[in-house]
Amino acid sequence: MGDDEGGSREGDIMKWVATFVLSMMSGLALAAGGPSYPLESIETDYNDTASLQRGMATYKHYCMGCHSLEYQRYERTARDLGIDPDVMVEAIVPSDKKIGDLGTIAMPSEGAAAWFGAPPPDLTLVARKRSPDWVYTYMKTFYVDPSRPLGVNNKVFAKVGMPHVLEPLQGIQRTVCKEAPIRVDGQVQTDPISGQPMTENQCGILEVVEGTGQLTEAEYDQLIYDLVNFLEYVGEPSKAQSHDIGIYVLLFLLVFFVFAYLLKREYWKDVH
């Protein structure tokens, strides 16, 4: 009887260990795999105050109705971005809030879940969780899909439940079949003889219908860059300050090393 119980316990433990290992391997595989659609790479800049201010304005006008910044205070944003508190209150802070409040929104999560299928996520940490490249590419790859409830889909986030709120600015984007460069691991392949890019007929290429957007492609790219730059800042507001402090720390360690080396020589000169 005792042997049977011991064997049963050992079997349960082995099953638990096997389940744990498989779940960890699955998580690592998903993390390593990443999105199948190639991401566009950008370099965010915390020191570009004008870009951060434009990004905040875009968030205010197009995102704030559904997405909160519940871990960031308006006062901190105004101070970091060089905005006068009175201007911040007048232009950004909702009328029912104070400048020292967190960036919560009035939309109830229960209602949002009923309307959209799931509550719109808070955006404070989205750039840190997904990466700036992911958010930037995501905001540029909405396209018309009549099979979806909201009429749009996304190349980065398939079966997306979010409407393309920036469509009036970008324009109506569709997937088409056209001649396009051949890419391998994101790199355009060139003909070894002529040196020209190699092309082939490809389907699923994104193309904005001419005349349907208020902005040019370059202007829309800049708009999205500014928004992502702002979201990256919100995810870690002290990053620029930490970077500056790190430089002083390294300089201190360098000076300290020189004095420590000279002190070591003084102490050990008689030994050697």
Summed up, what is this model?
The protein is built from 10 helices and 8 strands. It is an alpha+beta fold.
Secondary structure topology:
Blueprint: H1 2-33, H2 49-63, E1 69-73, H3 74-80, H4 85-91, E2 102-103, H5 109-116, H6 126-130, H7 132-140, E3 142-144, E4 152-154, H8 167-170, E5 173-181, E6 183-184, E7 187-188, E8 199-208, H9 217-235, H10 239-268
Antiparallel strand pairs: 1-2, 3-4, 5-8, 6-7
Helix pairs in contact: 2-9, 7-9
Describe the structure.
The chain is of the alpha+beta class. The protein is 50% helix and 13% strand. The chain has a domain at 36-139 and 216-256: Cytochrome Bc1 Complex, Chain D, domain 2, CATH 1.10.760. It has helices at 2-33, 49-63, 74-80, 85-91, 109-116, 126-130, 132-140, 167-170, 217-235, 239-268; strands at residues 69-73, 102-103, 142-144, 152-154, 173-181, 183-184, 187-188, 199-208. The strands form four sheets. Strands 1-2 form a two-stranded antiparallel ribbon. Strands 3-4 form a two-stranded antiparallel sheet. Strands 5-8 form a two-stranded antiparallel sheet. Helix 2 (49-63) packs across helix 9 and helix 7 (132-140) packs antiparallel against helix 9 (217-235). It is flat and about 85 Å long. The N and C termini lie far apart (73 Å).
Secondary structure class reads alpha+beta
Query: Looking at the structure, what is the overall shape?
Result: flat
- Helix count? 10
Q: What's the order of the H and E elements?
A: HHEHHEHHHEEHEEEEHH
In spatial order, strands of the major sheet run 1-2
What is the rounded Rg?
Answer: 26 Å
**Roughly what fraction of the amino acids lie in strands?**
5-15%
Largest sheet: 2 strands, antiparallel
Please give the share of residues in helix: 40-55%
Number of strands: 8
Shape-level CATH architecture of the domain at 36-139 and 216-256: Orthogonal Bundle
CATH level-four homologous superfamily name of the domain at 36-139 and 216-256: Cytochrome c-like domain
